[in-house]
Structure formats: structure tokens, C-alpha cells
Design brief:
The structure holds three protein chains of three kinds. Chain A has a single domain, classed as Orthogonal Bundle (MetI-like fold). Chain A is 84% helix and 0% strand. Chain A contains eleven helices and no strands. The longest helix of chain A has 36 residues. The radius of gyration of chain A is 23 Å and the shape is flat. The two termini of chain A are 36 Å apart. Chain B has a domain of 144 residues: MetI-like (MetI-like fold), CATH 1.10.3720. Chain B is 82% helix and 0% strand. Chain B contains eleven helices and no strands. By secondary structure, chain C is α/β, with parallel strands linked by helices. In chain C, strands 6-7-8-3-9-10 form a six-stranded mixed sheet, with helices on both faces. Chain C is globular and about 50 Å long. The chains are: A mainly alpha, B mainly alpha, C alpha/beta.
Chain lengths: 264, 278, 262
């Protein structure tokens, strides 16, 4: 086995040993458990497989969540980027609206749930809107920062070369702001997830949150733990997908940062 | 030239620029007030065009808020929220920062824990709320557990990152002057890591408040959040809106306090600097 | 030129260093006596910084040895002070100038009052007053920041002062000022200084002896005596025939390496 292969293997092992060990410890420590709230890992996994790995159950329990999450998140992304770009480019407008935006942002998304219920009911539309509203803010603020932080020389260059407004946007402004936008999008994803779970606890539209609440109501501890696990894995997978997309789109940025660091 | 002459020759350009700066500031303030006023007008329009009771008017909301502020239960609720928030923040900081720094100082530890932290931080604390609620009931302890389990991750993970950001030249300098390890950690390592730790604390603080109110809202643990839920259950929309406003105000306060504190502690940081070449 | 054994401050014997099997330094042999100002010159990339780090004890050479006053250097020994090229990164931006200068003293056991007094004295020696002492390093110009770094080394009262291309990051005018400062300090305080540089003019101007490195791996091409006397001046000294001769000689020694490796 050559040195490179060995290096790769050892770094994989280094990352895996602790998670594996923890799972094993959990399994062993809980196997004899009689505690109500901390059942054996084996029964949790059985519940998990039943509710989340079996195709029919997966569709029934997970798809509603995926649906509202994707629509709400996309709404937040698009509107956040659009409004953020406008505000980022028109500085007086941004300065004038800042106090209002800061106040609105400070409202915990979940605290708006009662208000949204009163306004929009308890169906899918309300949940999508609530997710969109909550995740809008990090995207907006980060887009503003990203657009404002673009190297002024690039914008000067655009003026000298007489770029049209649209070309300026697509060639300079959006790419230049994209690292920041992605940072905002990442935070927004985490917030969407939280709001999604909370929103699903009302009404009957299904989803992970609904399942979790139902499990709690029925005192089905195994199912509850299974749902926690499912939620964790779901969020983790979303993050991985996000990271893959980010890595692709921001390849130039990573390389540039690495270059800068090695020069200093 | 007498002294009087010289003082009379204050360059008019500096007076002009000072005046115009004040003008700009005044104009900006006016614009901001204008925007806020416009938002309140929009709110008012919404409140009268929607069916009765759905959305209280700004007047009703602020009026209710003012009235609530004179009653003890209001301040008890606010106090509960603030207390939970602070307790959680302290625990997260006292545990998260040192542990994070320690892990970050060892490459092996950092790589070993990466997957575990990555996974645990994506579990929304809401997920464990039902379980913790069953164990502790709708109490302060329950809220505390949920908030800590949710807010500790950014603080912890940023501290791990912070430990690796130290300026290597300062390490070399310390070695060459034979500075003992404890001195190095206290005088060189920690101050250098502080900016990054602050980033984690900033996110952690925001999440602490958010989660506190969320936990209260969903579980009924005492505090502003449960007041919101309570008001909704009694269909007392002015009261509900008033408490939502309170949560926003708390958020603004916490944010403002944090930024003020950060500016003080990181006086020397490039982001806060005014360079004067002497 | 041989130095009496009692007076040897630093001795490098057969010093060599290799990274991953690739030899960077080879067979470096020289001595520096007490009170001498020695410059190590060589083209960029020849391995001067590696050599300096071995001399400072920051890394162990893979061959040969370095000894400070007879004691072998396997790690940084007391009495060695280092001035880095990048002053902005070697000074702590969160501490005042005075705090930066007194840190090595306090860390090594000096009491607060003594350390502060020593720091202020050192700052005066490099031309910085009490007002500057209270400022943050980044509030000062580049030249002044480097003076702070020098003051930090001076306050330490070192047996040996090592400087790694200390004036490479400042403009020519400031460089001339700092060079003269070093000459003055070395003469007044009887310091033993080893200064690494790629600037041949600077090396000849400052030193009693120049150690010229060349080759790959780098070796000592020659150690050149610089008998220019104690009173040196940027204009007068640099326009003498002797200076030109010495400069040409060192230049030739270093250039030899470039032809060999290009």
C-alpha cells in the first residue's frame, strides 16, 4: 500500500472511529435499559426502519416535509437575493430601511406561528409562507453584505467597458456576492428546517414534525427517538447536498482564498 | 500675524464638510423614520381591511403593550425569558469555548470530532423538545436543556476553528523568547483566538434567545414565548402581537448589547480600527 | 580571523539541513565573536532563513551543531533575541507597544515595574517616546513598528541578537535610518549581532565580517572581513573605493552560485 493510499485511509479512520465508538457505546449501554425515556438502541432502530426506511412509510412521513421545505426555502432564496441585490446596489435605500429590517429580523420566526395561523390558517400555504418568511432574513442580509462588499474596481471596470445593467448583474454583482449569499443560504437552510418542524405540529398535513408530535401524544418513545434520528439524518443529508453545490459553484473562491493564505 | 488673525482663518472647507455630514446624517434619520412610519401605515391598513380580530391595529398593539408593561406578570414573563437566555448562554460559553479550544489545538481531536459535531449540530433542538418536555415538564429546566443543546454547537465549533487561526509568527516569537506555555496561552493564544470565538458567540447568543422563546412557545414553560401561545389560545390578538413585539425588542437589545461589547473587547481588530500613521 | 575561545558567542560546526532528503544547507562552519556585527548574505531562496532558524534554536539541524557560548543549541536558549522580517505579524495587535516590548521579560520572570522600566528604556534607545509606547503597533508606521520589534529584542538584553532580513519590508529611506540605528546600538551596547540579508550594500555597510552563501545546497563561499572602521556614514562610506571593492567581491561570491544553478 503506497503512502498516498495509507494517508487517505488513516484520515478516513480518524474521522470515523469516534462516531462508530459512540454508537457502539450507546447500543451497549442502552441494551439492558428499562428507562422509559431511553429505550434500547435496538428498538429505536427497529422503529426507525419501520417508519422511515420502508418506502410507503417514507413517502407518507417525509414527502410532506420535503414539499413545504423546498417551496418555502426556494421562495426565501429568490426573494432574498432579489431584494438583497437591490438594497445592496442602492445604498441610500438600504440605509433608510435598515432599522425596519433589523426590527423585523429580530422577530423569532417561530413566534410568528400564532400570527400566521390567524392570518393564513393551518394548511400548507401558511407553513410555506412561514418557512419563507423566517429564512428570508439571513439570505437578504448576507446578499446585501455580499453586494456591498464587491471589489469597487470591478464595478469601475464595468462602467469603463459600458456593460449593460443586466450584464453587470450577471457577470459581476451576483458572482462577486455569491460567497456571502451562500453563507446566508446555509443559515437559511438551518432556520427552514426548524420552522418546518414547528409548523408541522399544527394542522394535519403530515411531515416529520407532525409525526414527532403524534409520537409524543401517544407516548410512543421509540417512534419519537426514531423521528429524532430521521430528522438528524435528513438535515445532515441536506447539508451535504448544500455543501456539494457550494463547492462546485464557489470553486474559484476557495482556490483564491487558499492562494491568499499561502502568500501571507 | 496676530493670534486672532490666525484663528479667524479657519479653513472654510472643513466647516462646510462638517455641516454637510450633519445634513446627511439628519436626512438619513428622516428617511429611516419615514420608512418606519410607512411600515406602520401598512400595518394599520392591514388591520382595518382584515376581518375583525384577525390583526390588531398598531394603536391597539402599542396600547396593550404599554398597559401590560405596568403589570407585574409582564415583567415576570420577561424576566423568565431573560433568565433562561442568560443561564443557557453562560453554560454554552463556559463549556463550549474551553472544550472547543482544547479540541482545536489537537489535529487528531479536531478530525475525530468533526463528523460527530457536524451531525449533532444539524438536529433541530425542536426535535428533542417533545422528549425533554416529557422528562422535565414545562419548566425552566426543560427550556434550559433544549436551548443549551441547540445553541452550544456554533460556539463549540467556532472555538475549534478559532484555536487553529493563531498567527504562526507569534508562536515562533514566543518560542524564540522562551515564553512559558501558560504565558503563551494567556497572553498570545487566547487574545489571538478571541475574534473568532466572538463570531461563534454572536451566533450562539442569537440562537439562545430564539430557542428560549421557541421552547417557551411550544411547551408552555414560563416566559414571553408561553405568553404568546397563551394569548393565542384566548384569541387575544392585541396581547399576542404585543408579546411578539416584545420578543423582537429583546432580540434588538441583545444584539445591540453584543455589538457594543464586541466593539469594546475587539478594539484592536482590523474591523474596528482607525489607522493613524503616526 | 581567529577569535579567542572565551570570546566566541556563537559557533556553527558542519551545520547542514535537509528537508525530506533534499539538502538545503551543507557544511556551514563559522564563529561569531563577542561584540561582532556579522551579516549573512545570499541570493533569495538560498536557505538564509533556514540557517537563521537553526542558529536561533527554532529548528534542529539535520547535520552538525550550533553552540551558544559553548552550550549546544537544541532548542531556543536564554539570551538569544530574534527580530523578524514581518514586523506587523510578529507584534501582538491587541497589546500596546510597551506591553509588546515587556512580554518576553515578564514571561521570563521579571516583575511588572522592572519590566516596564526596561521596556521604556529600550524604546527610548530606538527613538520612541512614552506616547508611542501607549499606542497599538498598527497605529505606527512600518519603520516604527520595526523599531518596536528591535526594542523588544534589546529589552531582553540578549547575548546574541539575530535579525532575519529586518529591513526588507520598509522603504529605502526608512531602511537607511534603521541601518544607522543598528550601527549605533551595536556600538553603544556592545551587542553581538548576526543579520541575514539579501542586500549586499547593507551587508557590507553594517558588518565587521560578511558570510557569503552560495550554491545548492548552500555553503559558505567565503567569509569576508570588512575593515571599514567604526565611523560609517550612508553617503561617505558608500562612496569609498574600499566599499566598492568589498561590494564587488561579495557580489561575485554570490553570483557564482547563480551561474552554477541557473
Amino acid at each position: 500500500m503506497n503512502a498516498a493510499r495509507k494517508g487517505w485511509l488513516s484520515s478516513v479512520a480518524l474521522e470515523l472511529w469516534l462516531p462508530v465508538l459512540l454508537v457502539v457505546i450507546w447500543w451497549v449501554a442502552s441494551s439492558q435499559s428499562t428507562s422509559v425515556y431511553f429505550p434500547p438502541l435496538s428498538s429505536i432502530l427497529a422503529s426507525f426502519a419501520q417508519d422511515w426506511l420502508e418506502p410507503a412509510a417514507l413517502v407518507k412521513n417525509l414527502f410532506p416535509s420535503i414539499q413545504i421545505l423546498s417551496i418555502g426555502y426556494s421562495l426565501a432564496l429568490v426573494s432574498g437575493i432579489v431584494v438583497g441585490t437591490v438594497l445592496g446596489l442602492v445604498a441610500p435605500l438600504e440605509r433608510a430601511t435598515r432599522p425596519l429590517l433589523e426590527t423585523l429580523r429580530a422577530i423569532p420566526g417561530v413566534a410568528l406561528l400564532p400570527i400566521f395561523i390567524v392570518l393564513f390558517g393551518i394548511d400548507v400555504e401558511m407553513k410555506v409562507l412561514l418557512i419563507a418568511f423566517g429564512s428570508f432574513w439571513p439570505v437578504l442580509l448576507n446578499t446585501i453584505d455580499g453586494v456591498r462588499g464587491i471589489e469597487p474596481l470591478l464595478l469601475d471596470g464595468a462602467r469603463v467597458f459600458r456593460y449593460g445593467r443586466i450584464r453587470r448583474l450577471t457577470a459581476i454583482v451576483l458572482p462577486g456576492a455569491s460567497p456571502q449569499i451562500f453563507a446566508g443560504a446555509r443559515t437559511a437552510l438551518a432556520i427552514s428546517l426548524i420552522i418546518m418542524v414547528v409548523a408541522e405540529t399544527v394542522g394535519g398535513s403530515g411531515g416529520i414534525g407532525y409525526f414527532l408530535l403524534a409520537a409524543q401524544r401517544n407516548f410512543a418513545i421509540n417512534a419519537m427517538w426514531g423521528a429524532i434520528l430521521a430528522l438528524g439524518i435528513f438535515g445532515y443529508l441536506l447539508n451535504i447536498i448544500f455543501r456539494i453545490v457550494e463547492r462546485r459553484v464557489l470553486r474559484w473562491h476557495r482556490l483564491q482564498q487558499a492562494r491568499l493564505e499561502s502568500h501571507s | 500675524m496676530t493670534k486672532l488673525d490666525q484663528s479667524a482663518r479657519v479653513p472654510s472647507s472643513s466647516v462646510r464638510s462638517a455641516r454637510s455630514a450633519n445634513n446627511r446624517r439628519g436626512a438619513r434619520l428622516l428617511a429611516q423614520l419615514g420608512v418606519m412610519a410607512a411600515a406602520i401605515v401598512v400595518w394599520w391598513c392591514g388591520s382595518i381591511s382584515l376581518p375583525e380580530g384577525v390583526m390588531p391595529s398598531p394603536v391597539a398593539t402599542f396600547g396593550t403593550l404599554a398597559q401590560l408593561a405596568t403589570t407585574p406578570p409582564f415583567w415576570t414573563a420577561v424576566g423568565e425569558t431573560v433568565w433562561t437566555f442568560l443561564a443557557a448562554l453562560v453554560i454554552c460559553t463556559v463549556v463550549g469555548v474551553p472544550v472547543g479550544l482544547a479540541i482545536g489545538s489537537s489535529r487528531i481531536a479536531t478530525q475525530s470530532t468533526r463528523l460527530v459535531f457536524d451531525f449533532l449540530r444539524t438536529i433541530p433542538p425542536i426535535a428533542i423538545l417533545p422528549l425533554v418536555l416529557l422528562i422535565f415538564g414545562p419548566t425552566f429546566e426543560m427550556a434550559l436543556v433544549v436551548v443549551v443543546l441547540g445553541a452550544i454547537w456554533p460556539i463549540l465549533i467556532q472555538s475549534v476553528y478559532a484555536a487553529r487561526q493563531g498567527e504562526p509568527l507569534l508562536q515562533e516569537m514566543s518560542r524564540s523568547f522562551r515564553i512559558p506555555p501558560l504565558w503563551f496561552v494567556a497572553r498570545v493564544f487566547l487574545p489571538g483566538a478571541l475574534p473568532f470565538i466572538m463570531t461563534g458567540l454572536r451566533v450562539g447568543t442569537t440562537i439562545c434567545l430564539l430557542l428560549t422563546i421557541t421552547a417557551e412557545l411550544l411547551s408552555g414553560a414560563p416566559g414571553v414565548g408561553s405568553e404568546i401561545a397563551d394569548a393565542k389560545n384566548f384569541l387575544d390578538t392585541p396581547r399576542m402581537y404585543a408579546y411578539v413585539l416584545v420578543s423582537a425588542l429583546l432580540g434588538l437589545l441583545v444584539n445591540g448589547a453584543f455589538w457594543a461589547g464586541q466593539r469594546r473587547v475587539l478594539r484592536w481588530h482590523p474591523s474596528n480600527r482607525q489607522e493613524n500613521a503616526a | 580571523m581567529t577569535i579567542a575561545t572565551d570570546d566566541i558567542t556563537l559557533a556553527a560546526r558542519g551545520l547542514g539541513h535537509a528537508y525530506n532528503g533534499r539538502e538545503v544547507l551543507s557544511d556551514i562552519d563559522f564563529e561569531v565573536g563577542r561584540g561582532e556585527f556579522v551579516c549573512i548574505v545570499g541570493p533569495s531562496g538560498v536557505g538564509k532563513t533556514t540557517l537563521l532558524r537553526c542558529l536561533a534554536g527554532l529548528q534542529r539541524s539535520t547535520a552538525g551543531s550550533v553552540s551558544l557560548r559553548g552550550q549546544e543549541m537544541t532548542e531556543p536558549l536564554p539570551g538569544v533575541a530574534l527580530v523578524f522580517q514581518d514586523y506587523s505579524r510578529s507584534l501582538m495587535p491587541w497589546a500596546s507597544v510597551a506591553r509588546n516590548v515587556e512580554l518576553p521579560l515578564r514571561a521570563n520572570g521579571a516583575r511588572r515595574g522592572e519590566a516596564r522600566a526596561a521596556a521604556l528604556r529600550a524604546l527610548t534607545l530606538v527613538g520612541l517616546d512614552e506616547i508611542a509606547a501607549q499606542m497599538y503597533p498598527w497605529q505606527l508606521s512600518g519603520g516604527m513598528q520595526q523599531r518596536v520589534a528591535i526594542a523588544r529584542a534589546l529589552a531582553y538584553q540578549p547575548t546574541l541578537l539575530l535579525m532575519d532580513e529586518p529591513f526588507a519590508s520598509v522603504d529605502a529611506y526608512t531602511r537607511a535610518d534603521l541601518e544607522d540605528l543598528m550601527l549605533r546600538l551595536q556600538r553603544d551596547l556592545h551587542l553581538t549581532v548576526i543579520l541575514v540579508t539579501h542586500d549586499i550594500d547593507e551587508a557590507v555597510y553594517l558588518s565587521d565580517r560578511v558570510i557569503a552563501l552560495n550554491g545548492r545546497p548552500a555553503r559558505v563561499a567565503e567569509i569576508v572581513d570588512v575593515p571599514l572602521g567604526a565611523d560609517r556614514d550612508q553617503v561617505a562610506t558608500k562612496s569609498t573605493a574600499e566599499f566598492a571593492e568589498l561590494r564587488a567581491r561579495v557580489h561575485g561570491l554570490i553570483r557564482g552560485s547563480r551561474e552554477a544553478t541557473s
